[in-house]
Amino acid sequence: MSERVGTQGLLFNEPLLWERGSRGRSGMSLPRADVEPAPVYEDLIGNGPDIPDLSEPEVVRHYTRLSQWNFGIDSNMYPLGSCTMKYNPKTNEKQAARSGFAGAHPLLPSELSQGALQLMAELEQYLAEITGLDAATLQPAAGAQGELTGMLIMHAWFKHHDDRRSKIIVPDTAHGTNPASAALCGYRAVPAASGPDGILETAVIDRLMDDETAGIMITNPNTLGFFEENIKAIAQTVHRHGGLVYCDGANMNALMGIVDLAAAGVDILHLNLHKTFSTPHGGGGPGSGPVLVRKKLEPFLPVPRVIPDGKGWRLSDDFPLSIGKIHAFQGNFGVMVKAYSYIRSMGADLKRASQLAVLNANYLKERLKGVLHLPYDRPCMHECVFTDALQQPHGITTLEMAKRLMDYGFHPPTVYFPLVVKGALMMEPTETESRDDIDRFVEALEAVAKEAAESPELLREAPHVCKTERLDETEAARNPRLTG
Amino acid sequence: MRYLPHTDDDISTMLRVTGADSINDFFTVVPEELRRPSEMALPDALTEWELNDRMAALSNANTGATDFLSFMGAGSYDHHIPETVPFLAGRSEFATSYTPYQPELSQGTLQAMYEYQTLVARLTGMEIANASMYDGASALAEAILMALRITKKNTVAVSAAVHPFYRQVVRTYVEPTGCSVLELPVLESGRTDLSTLASSANCAVAALQSPNLFGCVEDLPTAARIIHDQGGLLAASFTEPVAFGLYRPPGDDGADVACGEGQSLGIPRSFGGPGVGIFCTRSRYVRSMPGRLVGKTRDRSGKRGFVLTLATREQHIRRERATSNICTNSSLCALSSAVYLASLGGSGLRRLAKLNYDKTEYLKRNLSEAGWTMPFTSPTFNEFVARVPRGDAEEVHRGLREKGILAGVPLGRWYPDLRDCLLLCVTETATREDMDRLVSEVRS
């Protein structure tokens, strides 16, 4: 085995922010007072918030130390399934920080914001080209808000056609947020079980789809990492009953330049710019979840929309069938700049990215077969799912292997998801991992599997070299302490 | 491509291991009729230097961001951002991590979010906060959905002085629930008319913004008393949290939810996003509130640590019965706002808020002397409505634009009665000379 990458360096202890500082310190320069103090309305005045006063060096040391307790994609492979933790290019950050972008007020007159509007219009065109759909909105601020937008469009479509529908089909291999997004639009989720190959069978949808059902929320590739081969026939069934097909495109990283989702019968699709298009996750956002639709649904997209105006562009609210607004302004423009910058840097290599993402996942799957139990032994797309069935006889579970993997310097895969696989470990290497790094990850899991058989207590007590030992999540939920 | 590490050797070795002849073999599962007939029509890949040129050209075409003296606010504010904020939030251990599902590898994000929750709860005078929402508008929409769940009533009252875009987002979120939205009109003072609220027994929530769109500080204690008598909740929205450095925060005035936009706290305007939706409430609503929560706990050796908690409210477990569908939020922007608040400190925030107030009063005074009038009498923070003496505010705005000044936001597009009014904003970034320049152009 090559040298283990996970090791222990010097980590610092660091108190809570308000355990530092001293009243009267300041970490920020304030402008000089160049006007006279004005009288205030005493009955409205507060005492001022109880926020600690720190100097600039204290602030820097505090957050630097905190950052060192974190693991990012820049640290090592981060194979969280369905999260597409690919490398986040550094040039994208520079582009978004340009003063013309970062300093732009959202209500600037259109003639003074042509650069931003053009960037948005071009990004919409690129995303339409990449997916095969016709029109886009960039307004949703995250994938789940994109899902909600998709469901609102569906809801508005049926309302416009005076057609009340109460249910929606959600396969057991769909993303976790799907049923909650549907519920916000008043749709009851009807679960559909995937077949023995891990994909949906046409007959199941034939049985479930009816005129009361708005359509289906299908994740493709699904959360088992398989392409839904029957999607076209399923879409035809849904369409025959007047329904619509919503596709969760969080896993688009497998399909760029390869699949035409319009040809597959998809009517509405959301993307995650913070997955497929390389923008950083930021420890949980900000993301961006554009929604793409077929032509007939375009009138329902959120406003404002970027439209051509003579030689330039402007924002327009003049779409009477629109679902309205879902973000205060135009969405997470700063994230759009980064995705635009990525697409322009990649060009036709986006297809190569998808091909290599799929190659990496299949390579990882072959290498780990036998180390871990593979419930569906067939070629996968961008991710693959294993279980802890081989370790269970030693009393070792997925959670314990995940925690031990940290000691080897890797972020664990997504665990216990999808729910359809018991004890799942869902792995998505992405295209930016090299063969060498995947090999090291495999070696780490081989070592963990060996320990599971020979010294299981090492796993039960893991992690050993992180900032903390295993944390008591039950206690946190029983007695929530959310502020200090 | 520099992001793709595979050499031809790597690829052939890997294919050999998988037993495939070519990468295309993996895609044989895709039926022929679903494959793209041709390559994607995208522009050719740019080198890093060509990309810089392209992006500089687009950025420079946003002349409004850089070439004008601006008095624009209306939900997006120009405050100084200390260099420490982008520097620290940009540290790649923070920026390139995912949602902290594995707490032992994410203590940095988790402690920072626990501190953020604490700071914004203290700032708004509330007991608890979540780890952020997308923006101020969706935070208000989620507050209203939460009130509907808690009270089981079916009407929501929203002040007409709430930012018009926020009201639009609320309508979008509420529409599928079938609940009705009652709009509370605005009084001559610029505050919300609360008289209809007292007779609305089915009201789940009264949503007010303070300071409101016109910059006026609302009478939240009275609104709280009226809505609480009806068994509803008070949701206090805000777009300018710096105001709470000076004015009493919504938690002290009886709000059940304080929710709003945190962009003012160290986040660039970025054409409207990303910002951060701040969401704070009372402890008794902890199990009904939307969004991710970070909680304090201990590890096996008794050491303090932090975890995501109360996930049973979320979609992973209860799926359809989740309190919200929010998953990714605005964590890195929440971190930025925490670094900003830490840099400013309580004392700094007080001084900054007073500076914003003083400068705004200076401009008000000088514009009045120049013949403009202020239609609303209520106290304001760093924004106010000014009526132009003659003609249409759009025209005046256009005229000043030719002089290199963005004189706020004309209000006619949202409030036809106010088409002769501008909404002007002054923060600490405006110098006395800047304001004098505006006033002298107005006089001429």
Report on this structure.
The complex is a heterodimer of chains A (484) and B (444). Chain A is α/β, with parallel strands linked by helices and 484 residues long. Chain A has two domains: 104-346, Type I PLP-dependent aspartate aminotransferase-like (Major domain) (Aspartate Aminotransferase, domain 2, 3-Layer(aba) Sandwich), CATH 3.40.640.10; 349-468, Alpha-Beta Complex (Aspartate Aminotransferase, domain 1), CATH 3.90.1150.10. Chain A has 14 helices and twelve strands. Chain A has helices spanning 56-67, 90-96, 99-102, 114-131, 143-160, 178-184, 202-208, 231-240, 333-346, 349-368, 398-407, 435-454, 456-460, 473-478; strands spanning 135-137, 167-171, 188-192, 213-219, 244-248, 268-270, 291-293, 305-309, 312-316, 384-386, 414-415, 425-427. In chain A, strand 2, helix 6 and strand 3 (188-192) form a beta-alpha-beta unit. In chain A, helix 5 packs across helix 6 (178-184) and helix 10 runs parallel beside helix 12. Chain B is α/β, with parallel strands linked by helices and 444 residues long. Chain B folds into two domains: 66-81 and 345-443, Alpha-Beta Complex (Aspartate Aminotransferase, domain 1), CATH 3.90.1150.10; 84-340, Aspartate Aminotransferase, domain 2 (3-Layer(aba) Sandwich). Helix content of chain B is 36%, strand content 14%. Chain B contains 13 helices and 14 strands. Chain B has helices at residues 8-18, 48-60, 63-66, 84-89, 92-95, 107-124, 136-151, 164-174, 220-229, 315-318, 331-369, 393-402, 432-443, and strands spanning 69-70, 128-129, 155-159, 180-184, 203-209, 233-238, 257-261, 277-281, 293-298, 304-309, 383-387, 405-406, 409-410, 421-425. In chain B, strands 2-8-7-6-5-3-4 form a seven-stranded mixed beta sheet, with helices on both faces. Chain B has a three-stranded antiparallel beta sheet with strand order 11-14-13, covered by helices on one side. The longest helix of chain B is centred in the C-terminal third of the chain and has 39 residues, at 331-369. Chain B starts with 7 loop residues before the first helix and ends with a helix. The model of chain B has no long low-confidence stretch (mean pLDDT 96). Classes of the chains: A alpha/beta (484), B alpha/beta (444). The interface between A and B is large, with 198 and 202 residues.
